[in-house]
Amino acid sequence: MAYDSNNIFAKILRGEIPCDKVYEDDFALAFRDINPQAKVHTLVIPKGAYVSFDDFATTASDAEIGGFARAVQAVAALEGVTESGYRLLANHGKHAHQEVPHFHIHIAGGESLPGLIA
Ligand code: 5GP
């Protein structure tokens, strides 16, 4: 699947649409989900143009993958959920109901979570 540079997260990255920003570095941008499913529900996206986890893991550089993983950890710490615990989730493709075709990881926490985020 080709990357669509008009997807909503690409627009957020370009500053065309506002977001509730939590963190930004060379590799990643993090902002709060517009429709939170938990007390803490924050999205972390790579700065590069990747459709999904599958695309990212296949084609991103080691530096981007490493930088992104470090950013996810930093965002969880900033959101105050490292001690209490959090869930990471990434939807890839149709069966997972991926809504936005720019790779993102959900960080959910801030309360005891149900078995799985639907
Ligand atoms: P997906 O199903 O693709 O893994 O999740 C997409 C997530 O992006 C959803 O949880 C949805 O609430 C969130 N989302 C969609 N549009 C926007 C937006 O414009 N701003 C923010 N902050 N979150 C969004």
Strand order of the largest sheet: 1-2-3-5-4
Tally of alpha and pi helices:
3
Number of strands: 5
Rg computed from alpha carbons, rounded to a whole number of angstroms: 14 Å
Small-molecule binders: guanosine-5'-monophosphate
CATH topology: HIT family, subunit A
Percent range of helical residues: 25-40%
Mean pLDDT: 96
Order of helices and strands: HEEEHHEE
Give unreliable regions as ranges.
none
Integer count of domains? 1
Largest sheet: 5 strands, antiparallel
Give the full name of the CATH homologous superfamily.
HIT-like
C-alpha geometry: globular
CATH architecture: 2-Layer Sandwich
Beta-strand content estimate: 15-25%
Structural class: alpha+beta
Structure description:
By secondary structure, this protein is an alpha+beta fold. It has a single domain, classed as HIT-like (HIT family, subunit A). The chain contains 3 helices and 5 strands; from the N terminus they run H-E-E-E-H-H-E-E. Strands 1-2-3-5-4 form a 5-stranded antiparallel sheet, covered by helices on one side. Strand 1 and strand 2 (28-32) form a beta hairpin. The longest helix is centred in the middle third of the chain and has 17 residues, at 62-78. The mean pLDDT is 96. It binds guanosine-5'-monophosphate. Guanosine-5'-monophosphate binds at residues 8, 19, 31, 33-35, 91, 97-100.
In a nutshell, what does this entry contain?
This protein is of the alpha+beta class and about 120 residues long.
Short descriptors:
single chain, 118 residues, HIT family, subunit A, five-stranded antiparallel beta sheet, globular, binds guanosine-5'-monophosphate
